Amino acid sequence: MHGFRSIVSLFALTFSTGIAIAGDADSCRTVRMAEPGWNDLAFTTGVANVILDALGYTPKSDILGINVIYEGMKNNDVDVFLGYWNPAMVSYFDPYKKDGSIDTVRVNLTGAKYTFAVPSYVWEAGVKDFKDLSKFADRFEHQMYGIEPGSNQLMLDAIADPALDLKDWKVVESSEAGMLSEVGYKIKEKKFIVFQGWAPHPMNTMYDFRYLTGGDKYYGPDFGAATVSTQTRKGYAGECPNVGQFLNNLAFDIDFENAGMGYLINDGMQPQDAGLKAIKQNPEKLTTWLAGVTTFDGKPGLEAVKAKLGL
């Protein structure tokens, strides 16, 4: 982790078009990002890493718990987080929203969803809604499967709700990969399992499962219909306006993320390698992402990135 950054460089002047005359201040060269180990955020952070590196920055990314990411941004130890899922993370973000310590830059993904899911044969057996879980408690072994510790609060909230009669259930916490491995095993054995499901994610084509109704109180309506937003520590875009412009441009779509996450999960690629492959397959996205963005030393960004990536 790095210390607090200096305020805006006097030399980081801009035209009215938003194109920088000079690059960002030296304190902006290292861009400190974080993500919680979810494949969608590992991939999108990998994309950002590739582009920032090609622009002459030194991007760094850590895998941290969501609460640690937010504390890191508040304490000026983390600059950028591309993964604020709304409404799934509302309870995590709310204290920082109230104290104004974190800036939300823009929505970078629409069409996402996030809620409880079960294999289709479990759904057909009668588990179609959150309220159905307790009826089959023994079949589920009084367990539901989550991801890494610190990212399952909504499951814990459901268990704590007397209306669902799940008081003796527990959340099995491991990781996204660990959860999906268990899902694959249970489906192979035709056993009951309820788990955290979401889109975008290749799980939607890898496994035959259904999302449960009845979770509006916890995940929001329409099966946890969600947006994902980019956030930064307070004032970061003012201190580093060129990176700020890039973050303001950067947005994704479900198909792009499903493909990129497939590179991670199915092909075993590292996030930056997956990001590079996805960019090379969709080079037209760079025109939007790099509008008004320069290299770290103030040269046209689009041309520099294309040259660096061999496009």
Descriptive overview:
The protein contains 15 helices and nine strands. By secondary structure, the chain is α/β, with parallel strands linked by helices. α1 (39-54) crosses α13 (271-281).
List the topology elements:
Elements: E1 30-35, H1 39-54, E2 58-63, H2 66-74, E3 80-86, H3 90-99, E4 102-119, H4 120-124, E5 143-145, H5 153-160, E6 170-172, H6 176-189, E7 195-199, H7 203-206, E8 209-211, H8 216-219, H9 221-224, E9 226-233, H10 236-239, H11 241-249, H12 254-265, H13 271-281, H14 285-289, H15 301-309
List keywords for this structure.
311 residues; five-stranded antiparallel sheet; 15 helices; two-stranded parallel sheet; single chain; 9 strands; alpha/beta
- Tell me the number of helical segments per DSSP (H or I, 4 or more residues long): 15
Give the termini separation: 33 Å
Major sheet details: 5 strands, antiparallel
Strand content: 15-25%
The overall pLDDT, averaged over residues, is: 91
Low-confidence stretches: 1-21
Oligomer kind: single chain
Helix and strand sequence = EHEHEHEHEHEHEHEHHEHHHHHH
